[in-house]
Structures are given as structure tokens and as C-alpha cells.
Write a structure and sequence with these properties.
464 residues, MlaD_Phospholipid_Transporter, single chain, alpha/beta, Mce_C
């Protein structure tokens, strides 16, 4: 090897050494070997897997230091940071810190959060910075912690495809998207006043759900019972169909019966009306009648000799004064008594007449014997002979005072034309119209009672 070749080799080795030295200096510079940082520690609950040594320490986006070492003692983590000595005197000592990622997929860094009211004392060597435990800081940390597993589960190529499709779909539609967001904002602003009512409704829904939950066993029992009922209905469906057919047949028979006997039923109702009205009028005395009838049983037993060795009727026969001979046009039998319901007391021996006078049978009764009670109850010491509900029978005949001829001149009862537009009323109206017009009742049309009937109802008609 010549001297010239040796010189070239030496220069090459020197060049390589210089390049290696420059690379080493660059690495040392990056590692902070030539920097004299201010040591500061940070206490956190946990670090995670994305915070590494030599990570940046920033405040409002400005790098003010790096992470030197991360250690843990089981209860938490201690992060030792090297702060820039030229910038540390601008950081207050009451600053807090958050561990945030640079990007969704990037590593974490330490973000220093200045307080709302910075202290006068600045951060110094060996100070300890507290982790940001404010609500906002906790929420940000929680969101990032929940987002990390999702991002780790998503395949990058699938995410890239989705983002590409989303980008193509939104391309050129920025204005429409902005209008949609504005409308959404308007809608949200309109819903905001109703949020308290919505919260109240949700609270009431929770109460309702709780009540429903408490009632669930009873509801399930009811449904179980309903299942049994439904099963029974299904099993008896054929019998139910037979029952429906029977009811249908009975309904048809009843309808045919009513169609064939409607006039008879109307006539029966009309004929029964006076009887029912009489029963309704005297209904108040029915309880009294049956009660006094039951009280007469011991007397009847005594009359028929019950419990004695002389069975048969036991009576005391007395001869009373004669009522006199029959007088024509005076003693004709009649029943014009209209006193209404009564409840006379049982008096032993019984009086000749009721307390409010003899019955009006058309005869002129003789004067009552001495001791005959006449008048209202208070007049002769009888407690009550009114209706069974306690009213005086005397009050049921306004202005009535007993005398032998008190029934004379009584007003005859009006004749009832029957049910409105019934066959009976139609026949009566036809006879009245025929007598007036000089025709026969058969010639009067059937609708004549509709036109003329209201004129005759409630009036007195005399036919000469």
C-alpha cells in the first residue's frame, strides 16, 4: 500500500468517526444529556400504557419540560419531570396536571393546567404537582379511558374505509350540513325549557315502574287465572255454540209470541193498571197488616181452643141493636169509601166502627155505642192508627170529619181512556167521532186517535 492510499484510508476513518460523533451528540442532545433541567414530581392515581419516558410536558401547548422517570409504589404513580429552567419561573406552584393523548392513536403527554387564580409563588425544584381532580378533568379522563378500548378494537383499515366513505358523503354538502346543525341547535334550544318537565315525567315514570313492579305478582296471577278461563272457554266452545243457538231460537220464539199477542199484552197492561194502582196506594199498610195478622195468631188459637180439652170455636154471642128496616133510595149497597191506607190499633174488645168512622157501604149507620173511639188518635188516647210509616190516617183525607152522611155528594171518579193510542183508546175515539160526524165507528180511520185523542184526554164528554 502506498502512502497516498494510506492517507485516503485515514481520511475515511476520520470521516466515519465524525459522522458517528455527530449522531451520538444528536442522540445525547435528544436525551437531554447537555441540559440541566429542574426536577419536579407529579403524583397520579394511574399512568396507563401510553405515557413513556421523555414524553413532553406542556402548558397551553408550549413544551416546558420532559418526563424523566416513571415509578409506582402500589398506591399510585410518581412521574419525575425535568422542567426547562428558563420557563419554570413563569409557572405558578398551584398548577395541576392531566395525562392527555396527543392524538386519538398517539402517546400521552403531561398537560399542565393553570388555575383560575394563579398564586404569586412560582414552581421550583423538587415541588410536587397534583393531578387535576376537577369535574372537567375527570370527565375528560373517563372519556379517553373508555375510548381507548374502542380504538384498540377497531381495525385501522376498516376505520380508514369508514372515514373515507364519510368524507366522500360529506364532500360538497358543507352548507347543507351547517343548516342541519343550525336547525338541530334551534330544536335543542326549544327543548331546553321543557327539560324540567321531562325530568319530572321521568321521575314519575320511575315511580310508576316501581308500582308496576310491586304489582307484577298479582298481575301474573291474574293472567294465570285468565289463562285458565280462556282454556275453559275453548274447551266449552261447542256447548257455548249450542247455547247461542238455543238463545237465538228462544229469542225467535219470544218475538213470534210478542208479535202474535202484542194487542193482548197491551190490553192486559191496561186492565191491570187499576189493580196495580190500588195495590200501590195501599202498599204502606201491607207491613202493618201482616204484622197485626201475626199478632192475632194467639187470639185465634184461643178462639179455636188450642191447648184445651174443649176443641172448637169459642165465641161470645151478643145481640146488638137493630139497624132498622131497609129504606129504598137510601140503603142501596155501595162502596164509596176512599180513605186510603190505614193501620188501626188492635183494641180488645174491638169497637163497632173504625176510629175515623164507619165504612161507607151505602147505608146510614146507627150512632156508635158509648165508648166508641171517634176522631184522631190524640182525642181518645190511641197512639197511632195512621199508615205504618207513622203518619196519621186522619191526614190522608184532607178536610174529612166523620158524620153519618159524610159520604154524600162524593165526586165520581173520572173515566180513564187507557194507554195512549192503544186499541181501547182507538175504539173509544172512533165511537166519539162517529157520534159527532154521524158515521159508523168502522168508518173512522185508525189514525183518528192520533189527531183527536189529545182533545178528549182529561175532559168530560157527554153524549146526548
Amino acid at each position: 500500500m502506498t502512502g497516498h492510499d494510506t492517507k485516503k484510508v485515514t481520511l475515511g476513518v476520520v470521516f466515519i468517526l465524525v459522522i458517528a460523533l455527530l449522531i451520538g451528540l444528536a442522540v445525547a442532545q435528544y436525551a437531554g444529556a447537555f441540559r440541566s433541567g429542574v426536577p419536579v414530581t407529579l403524583k397520579v392515581d394511574r399512568v396507563g400504557t401510553q405515557l413513556n419516558e421523555r414524553a413532553d410536558v406542556k402548558i397551553r401547548g408550549l413544551i416546558v419540560g420532559t418526563v424523566d422517570r416513571i415509578s409506582t409504589d402500589g398506591d399510585g404513580a410518581t412521574i419525575t419531570m425535568s422542567m426547562n429552567p428558563d420557563l419554570i419561573d413563569q409557572i405558578p406552584d398551584n398548577v395541576t396536571a392531566r395525562l392527555l393523548p396527543k392524538t386519538l392513536f398517539g402517546e400521552k403527554y403531561v398537560s399542565l393546567v393553570p388555575p383560575d387564580r394563579p398564586g404569586a409563588i412560582k414552581l421550583a425544584a423538587y415541588d410536587t404537582i397534583r393531578e387535576d381532580r376537577s369535574v372537567a378533568g375527570i370527565e375528560v379522563e373517563r372519556v379517553l379511558d373508555d375510548l381507548l378500548p374502542l380504538l384498540q378494537a377497531v381495525q385501522p383499515q376498516d376505520l380508514a374505509t369508514t372515514l373515507g366513505a364519510l368524507s366522500q358523503g360529506l364532500a360538497g354538502r358543507g352548507e347543507q350540513l351547517g343548516q342541519t346543525l343550525e336547525r338541530l341547535n334551534t330544536l335543542t334550544a326549544g327543548l331546553q325549557p321543557a327539560i324540567p318537565d321531562l325530568q319530572e315525567d321521568i321521575t314519575q315514570l320511575a315511580d310508576f315502574s316501581e308500582n308496576l313492579s310491586n304489582s307484577a305478582p298479582d298481575l301474573l296471577d291474574a293472567l294465570d287465572d285468565l289463562t285458565v278461563t280462556s282454556r275453559t272457554v275453548v274447551e266449552e266452545s261447542q256447548n257455548l255454540r249450542d247455547l247461542y243457538r238455543s238463545v237465538t231460537g228462544a229469542s225467535d220464539d219470544l218475538r213470534a209470541f210478542l208479535d202474535a199477542n202484542k194487542d193482548n199484552l197491551i190490553g192486559l197492561a191496561h186492565a191491570s193498571r187499576p189493580t196495580l194502582e190500588t195495590l200501590a196506594r195501599y202498599a204502606p199498610e201491607f207491613p202493618c197488616f201482616f204484622q197485626q195478622a201475626s199478632r192475632l195468631i194467639p187470639y185465634l188459637d184461643q178462639v179455636f181452643g188450642k191447648g184445651t180439652d174443649e176443641p172448637g170455636v169459642h165465641i161470645t154471642l151478643e145481640i146488638v141493636a137493630s139497624n132498622g128496616k131497609y129504606i129504598p133510595n137510601q140503603d142501596e149497597p155501595a162502596y164509596s169509601d176512599d180513605r186510603g191506607p190505614r193501620c188501626y190499633p188492635i183494641i180488645m174488645p174491638g169497637p163497632q166502627y173504625p176510629p175515623d168512622g164507619p165504612f161507607r157501604d151505602g147505608s146510614v149507620p146507627p150512632p156508635p155505642p158509648a165508648g166508641q173511639p171517634i176522631g184522631p188518635p190524640g182525642k181518645f188516647g190511641v197512639e197511632d192508627y195512621g199508615t205504618f210509616d207513622g203518619t196519621y190516617s186522619w191526614d190522608l183525607i184532607p178536610g174529612f170529619e166523620w158524620s153519618p152522611n159524610s159520604h154524600a155528594g162524593a165526586k165520581p171518579a173520572a173515566y180513564d181512556m187507557g194507554i195512549t193510542n192503544s186499541p181501547g183508546e182507538q175504539q173509544q175515539v172512533a165511537e166519539l167521532v162517529a157520534a159527532r160526524t154521524g158515521t159508523t165507528p168502522a168508518a173512522v180511520p185508525g189514525w183518528g186517535s192520533v189527531l183527536v185523542g189529545p182533545l178528549y184526554r182529561g175532559t168530560e164528554v157527554r153524549i146526548a
